[in-house]
Structure prediction request, 102 residues.
Amino acid sequence: MTRIYLSGPMTGLPDFNFPAFHAAAQDLRARGHHVVNPAEITPEGEKTWANCMRADIKALCDCDVIALLPGWEGSPGAHLELHIAHRIGMAVKTFLDLVNHD
Prediction:
């Protein structure tokens, strides 16, 4: 089964944009996809940006597709995740592309 990793903006947004991540995950899961949602990943140690990114990148590397949520362009973390996804040969989609194809 294809594993989809959600990527998008968190830092500086209300509730770290978790509601948008949870809604996207719920939508894709309802369509039968296996979704890795970084809003559900708890990093080890202090919850710093770096620790969160380390935990998220580990999860990203086990996925087949990265799905970019609206606003990803303004997120340094999403840019890093996209760069890694490109380098390891993952498929790159926007969330809207995925839901509009089902």
